[in-house]
């Protein structure tokens, strides 16, 4: 209310133009003249000269001239009025807003809540999709082997006759389990087999410093934006780096070997391996524990956070956040793992515990399935 548009102060009736311009204007005869100007400072880009529409100019001209008095008179009139009258009632209500409205705190809080809700809904949808996939797979298996066709996947999960878990309390938190749940041990762990010749030569060429294995599992990868950080960190290490990745790593350092696949269990069992940088999948955690290899965990999903947390609690791992990685952090973490015997000592103890069983996990699986 306290803002008034009084009109353009520079607009006045036209005065005679210089002779050369007058001659130019008159020479246009009935077609007239188009005036083109971008003001005192600006110019059209040289690459493109836009078309100016005469109709718009005429419309704007009529609008500006349609006023009861010239802008200069309106300016004087309003100055006189404001000087001699109380105009506080024209003050906008917005100037008296509370601070939380002035700084949009309520809008920010609402926006954060909406974003949080979107993430939660996305997580729920993801869980729903995964559940449906598992339900479909379980249904297929149930149909093929005629396993309780009267029960759905969810009902079957709630009422199993026996649950066999491919795990070991050596790298898990102590907790009570029901009588129909048996930890049979990690199924993927086994004594190491000889490596292919190229990998064996690479491992042996590492000398006394050994090798660092880097793998984010079968599904996950580091973001491509992290490649320069990882490469810079790996380049500074004394160890050689065996990096399983499908990323396009250009010009890797001399101490880095890129592979798209490798026999992980066999490499973890190689005497030259010093550290395993992993995303923290259960299979990777158990294979490293079986062979006594300390870990540097960079989790991506929720259960990987839990797995790395268990490994840290057992004193066999260092946990890092993917978004906080720097070359210095990578070097410091590898140095800490390789020079502090505490990690290797704890992992050796866990390795002995996992391997100390009368029958292998696969034999235990068959034994329990046959028994049930």
Summarize the structure.
This protein is of the alpha/beta class and 372 residues long. It has helices at 19-26, 54-65, 71-84, 99-102, 105-145, 153-158, 197-204, 227-235, 264-268, 282-291, 302-313, 327-339, 341-355, 361-371, and strands spanning 163-165, 181-183, 211-215, 240-244, 256-259, 273-278, 295-297, 317-319.
How does the SSE layout of this entry go?
Blueprint lengths: L18 H8 L27 H12 L5 H14 L14 H4 L2 H41 L7 H6 L4 E3 L15 E3 L13 H8 L6 E5 L11 H9 L4 E5 L11 E4 L4 H5 L4 E6 L3 H10 L3 E3 L4 H12 L3 E3 L7 H13 L1 H15 L5 H11 L1
Account of the 3D structure:
The chain is of the alpha/beta class. It has three domains: 19-91, no CATH class; 92-159; 197-356, 3-Layer(aba) Sandwich (Rossmann fold). The chain has helices at 19-26, 54-65, 71-84, 99-102, 105-145, 153-158, 197-204, 227-235, 264-268, 282-291, 302-313, 327-339, 341-355, 361-371, and strands at 163-165, 181-183, 211-215, 240-244, 256-259, 273-278, 295-297, 317-319. The strands form two sheets. The protein has a six-stranded parallel beta sheet with strand order 5-4-3-6-7-8, sandwiched between helices. Strands 1-2 form a two-stranded parallel sheet. The mean pLDDT is 85. This is UDP-glucuronosyltransferase. Keywords: Glycosyltransferase, Transferase. One of its GO terms (molecular function) is UDP-glycosyltransferase activity. Belongs to the UDP-glycosyltransferase family.
């Amino acid at each position: 209310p306290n803002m008034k548009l009084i009109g353009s102060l520079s607009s006045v009736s036209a005065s005679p133009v210089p002779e050369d311009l007058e001659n130019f204007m008159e020479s246009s005869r009935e077609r007239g003249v188009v005036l083109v100007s971008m003001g005192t400072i600006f110019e059209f880009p040289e690459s493109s000269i836009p078309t100016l529409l005469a109709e718009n100019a005429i419309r704007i001209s009529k609008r500006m001239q349609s006023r009861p008095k010239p802008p200069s008179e309106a300016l004087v009139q309003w100055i006189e009025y404001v000087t001699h009258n109380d105009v506080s009632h024209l003050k906008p209500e917005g100037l008296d807003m509370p601070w939380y409205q002035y700084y949009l705190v309520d809008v920010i809080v609402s926006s954060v809540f909406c974003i949080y809700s979107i993430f939660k809904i996305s997580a729920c949808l993801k869980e729903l999709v995964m559940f449906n996939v598992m339900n479909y797979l379980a249904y297929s298996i149930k149909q093929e082997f005629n396993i309780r066709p009267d029960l759905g996947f969810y009902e079957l999960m709630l009422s199993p006759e026996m649950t066999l878990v491919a795990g070991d309390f050596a790298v898990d938190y102590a907790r009570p389990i029901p009588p129909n749940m048996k930890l049979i041990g990690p199924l993927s762990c086994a004594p190491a087999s000889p490596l292919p010749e190229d990998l064996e030569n690479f491992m042996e060429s590492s000398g006394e410093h050994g090798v660092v294995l880097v793998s984010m599992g079968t599904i996950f990868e580091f973001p491509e934006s992290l490649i320069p950080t990882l490469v810079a960190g790996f380049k500074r290490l004394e160890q050689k780096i065996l990096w399983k990745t499908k990323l396009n790593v250009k010009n890797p350092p001399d101490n880095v070997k890129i592979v798209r696949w490798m026999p992980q269990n066999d490499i973890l069992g190689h005497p030259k391996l010093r550290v395993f940088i992993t995303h923290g999948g259960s299979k990777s955690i158990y294979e490293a524990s079986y062979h006594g290899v300390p870990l540097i965990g960079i989790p991506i999903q929720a259960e990987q956070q839990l797995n790395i947390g268990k490994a840290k609690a057992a004193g066999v791992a260092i946990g890092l956040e993917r978004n906080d990685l720097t070359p210095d952090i990578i070097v410091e973490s590898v140095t800490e793992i390789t020079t502090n015997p505490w990690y290797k000592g704890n992992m050796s103890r866990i390795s002995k515990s996992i391997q100390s069983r009368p029958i292998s996990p696969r034999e235990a699986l068959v034994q329990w399935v046959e028994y049930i």
